[in-house]
Design goal:
With 414 residues, this protein is an all-alpha fold. It contains 18 helices and no strands. The two termini are 35 Å apart.
Length: 414
């Protein structure tokens, strides 16, 4: 009788983790904001840069809270941290409906999304997958992080539909339903990961034991850590600048908002394809080499968006950018586990994620500021093409995977 694969045995954990990613505090607010920029500008006369700055508040605090969440997960486990985070994010979306023209309320709302929803950041979901999967870890991470693609594909369309039918306040209420109605039940039922203490026995026959590897400080002394961090920073400066400004860019060219949201859905589909395909490939081939190819493709997409666009060319560009967004977060999770081990994965991943969050927070404002100054996104998208190229190529200097050995003190502590 054929033995079940890890994916077949733990599919419910992957599904629950994917739902958590879809409704996380760094994904749902980020991908829905583009649909809300023009309605908020029309009502309150805020500039695009001022509105996009809201992402800086949510992502900036996400950068600060990520290492804290990582430490809490290592101590208390991921399950309850994730559930409380989903509830908190819903409450923060409800708070956003109270905006009355004071810009500080916008920033307070997105700050609340980061603080109250901190337990939903990707470290919660990827740590669960990394401790529960061994032979198919790359594919499992890819399937889980495909949730960002689902959110990128559906959140803009959902938000545009809500704005058109119930206004921007109703849109925030509609978004508030997703973490508790969509993700909450799945996470409650299916999110029961293997914690490191239990994973030791599960990994007994694995070539990579669970509780091995570097501490955070040890990892930070390696060149691979800084190469990976710089790549993450460069790629997400590009991705995070493009995505929230994509719908405003397309509607400026005369495209209806609903069509522009459909273009962004191509980005979401590409994320899913990138997640799964890259996850499959890195289980078989040297991950930095796979990364260099995948992350080079959006150079073309950014150059397309820097010039005049049609529905077809915009969809092609969004697809190429989506492939990079799909690859990078998956690769960051996999490479952190492969190069630094699982002993302090949550802490190491959280610091790398903090770099991602800083980029995600700064880039939308910078791109929108360039638009407010020049009335064009051209310079911003040309810069994005350079960031993609640098982020892809430097990963080729990571070197071979290290041989990690068990740490007796780590086992004793576990």
């Amino acid at each position: 009788m054929r033995l079940k694969t890890e994916i077949e045995q733990s599919w419910l954990l992957i599904l629950a983790s994917c739902a958590g990613v879809v409704c996380s505090s760094v994904v749902l607010p980020f991908y829905s904001l583009g649909a809300l920029v023009k309605p908020l500008t029309a009502e309150f006369h805020w500039t695009r840069a001022a509105i996009q700055s809201a992402v800086a508040f949510s992502s900036g605090l996400g950068a600060i809270s990520a290492p804290i969440i990582g430490a809490l997960i290592d101590r208390y486990g991921a399950r309850y941290i994730g559930l409380f985070g989903l509830l908190g994010l819903s409450l923060a979306f409800v708070f956003a409906t109270q905006m009355d023209g004071h810009i500080w309320l916008l920033y307070a709302a997105y700050t609340a999304m980061a603080v109250l929803g901190a337990g939903t950041v990707p470290v919660t979901w990827t740590r669960a997958i990394a401790t529960s999967f061994f032979e198919q870890r790359g594919l499992a991470l890819g399937l889980t992080l495909a949730g960002t693609g689902l959110s990128a594909m559906l959140a803009p369309i959902y938000a545009v539909w809500l704005v058109e039918h119930v206004g921007w306040r109703g849109a925030y209420l509609g978004l508030a339903l997703l973490p508790i109605v969509l993700a909450g039940p799945l996470v409650y039922i299916g999110f029961r990961p293997v914690e490191p203490l239990k994973a030791i026995a599960v990994a007994a026959d694995s070539t990579v034991p669970t509780v091995v590897g570097h501490s955070l400080l040890e990892a930070m002394r390696t060149r691979q850590f800084w190469i990976l961090l710089c790549s993450v920073l460069a790629i997400y400066l590009a991705v995070s600048g493009i995505v929230p400004n994509l719908i405003p860019l397309l509607t400026d060219s005369g495209m209806p908002a609903a069509r522009a949201a459909q273009v962004q859905s191509f980005y979401g589909v590409a994320i899913i394809v990138g997640r799964v395909l890259v996850g499959y490939l890195i289980d078989r081939y040297w991950a930095p080499g796979v990364a260099a190819i995948a992350l080079s493709l959006p150079v073309i997409g950014a150059l397309i968006l820097a010039g005049p666009v049609t529905m077809v060319t915009a969809a092609l560009a969004a697809t190429l950018v989506g492939l990079a967004a799909g690859a990078e977060l998956d690769l960051m999770s996999y490479l952190a586990a492969r190069y630094f081990g699982m002993r302090h994965y949550a802490k190491i991943y959280a610091v790398l994620y903090a770099a991602l969050a800083v980029a995600a927070g700064a880039a939308p404002f910078c791109f929108a500021r360039i638009y407010d100054t020049t009335k064009s996104y051209r310079l911003a998208f040309l810069a994005a093409s350079g960031f993609f190229l640098v982020g892809a190529l430097i990963l080729l200097t990571m070197g071979p995977y290290p041989t990690l050995t068990p740490n007796p003190r780590a086992h004793a502590k576990a």
